[in-house]
Design brief:
By secondary structure, the chain is α+β, with helices and mostly antiparallel strands. The chain contains 4 helices and 11 strands. The strands form 2 sheets. Strands 1, 2, 3, 4, 5, 6, 7 and 8 form an 8-stranded mixed β-sheet that branches. Strands 9-10-11 form a 3-stranded antiparallel β-sheet. The protein is globular and about 55 Å long. It starts with 9 loop residues before the first helix and ends in a 24-residue tail after the last helix.
Length: 238
C-alpha cells in the first residue's frame, strides 16, 4: 500500500510521461489482453528471463534497486544483480515475470511499481534472453525490503547516473567470444560500509537504462558483446 504522505517527483513524472509516449522503446499495452501468451507459447520459452529496473528518487538522484545474490546459490553466487529471474509457465508476460521475481526476492509489492516501459532484450552467452522491465517506485517509504535469504544476501540502492560517468570507480576488461573481442564494464559502489561490484550483463543493462533515462551516451568508450543484442524472438510485450 502507498502511504498518504508523499508527493510524486516531478522528475519521475516527466520520465514516466516521456517513456509512455516514446516510440524508441517498447510501449505498454492499453488492453490487458495484449502481451499475454498461451500455455503453448510459454512452454517454448524456457530460456527467457526478466529483470526489474526499479527507479525512485532520493535527494537529487534517480536511484535503482540492486541485490547481491546469496553466496549459497549454484550460479552467479555473490554477484550483484537486478531483481528478476526465469519465466514461469504461469507468467502471462515479461512484466509479470519481473514483478513476481522482485516480490519473491526482495518483498517488493507489485502494486507499488508503476511499469513505464520494457527495454530491448539482452541475450547471454548461454543463450538466455533477458528482458529489462523499467518501473517507478513512487513511494519509497512504502517499500519494506524483505530479502529472501535463500536467494538474496543484501539489498542496496545506487544512483543510476553513475553508470554513465567515467570516474575512478569504473574499469573495463577485454574478453573474446566467437572471435569477437568485447569489453565488460565494472563499477565499484560503496554504501553501508560495503563495496559492491556491478559488472557484466547487469552493468550493461544499467548503462542502457541510464542512457535512455538521461538521454545521453556514457562518458566512456564502450564495446559490449555482440551476442547481447543478436537477433532474438521479439518480446511478448508489444
Amino acid at each position: 500500500m502507498e502511504s498518504n504522505n508523499f508527493t510524486r517527483s516531478p522528475k519521475l513524472l516527466d520520465l514516466s510521461k516521456r517513456f509512455r509516449q516514446s516510440k524508441s522503446v517498447s510501449p505498454l499495452p492499453d488492453d490487458p489482453s495484449i502481451g499475454q501468451s498461451n500455455e503453448s507459447e510459454r512452454s517454448t520459452r524456457p530460456n527467457r528471463a526478466a529483470v526489474l529496473i526499479c527507479l525512485f528518487e532520493e535527494g537529487d538522484d534517480i536511484c535503482v534497486i540492486l541485490t547481491q545474490r546469496s553466496s549459497k546459490l549454484s550460479s552467479h553466487s555473490g554477484e550483484v544483480s537486478l531483481p528478476g529471474g526465469r519465466t514461469d509457465e504461469e507468467d502471462t508476460d515479461d512484466i509479470r515475470t519481473a514483478l513476481r521475481e522482485a516480490e519473491e526476492e526482495i518483498g517488493l509489492d507489485p502494486a507499488l511499481v508503476d511499469v513505464v516501459t520494457v527495454l530491448e532484450p539482452f541475450v547471454t552467452k548461454k543463450n538466455v534472453t533477458v528482458v529489462p522491465v523499467m518501473g517507478i517506485l513512487w513511494d519509497k517509504q512504502a517499500f519494506n525490503p524483505l530479502p529472501n535469504v535463500g536467494e538474496v544476501e543484501s539489498i542496496f540502492y545506487a544512483p543510476l547516473e553513475m553508470f554513465l560517468k567515467d570516474e575512478n570507480n569504473r574499469r573495463h576488461e577485454e574478453r573474446e567470444h566467437g572471435g569477437d573481442k568485447y569489453w565488460l564494464q565494472y563499477f565499484y559502489y560503496e554504501t553501508n560500509n560495503r563495496v559492491y561490484v556491478i559488472w557484466a550483463l547487469t552493468a550493461g543493462i544499467l548503462i542502457a537504462a541510464a542512457s535512455l533515462v538521461f538521454r545521453r551516451p556514457p562518458d566512456f568508450q564502450d564495446m559490449p558483446p555482440k551476442f547481447w543484442h543478436k537477433t532474438t524472438a521479439s518480446s511478448n510485450v508489444p
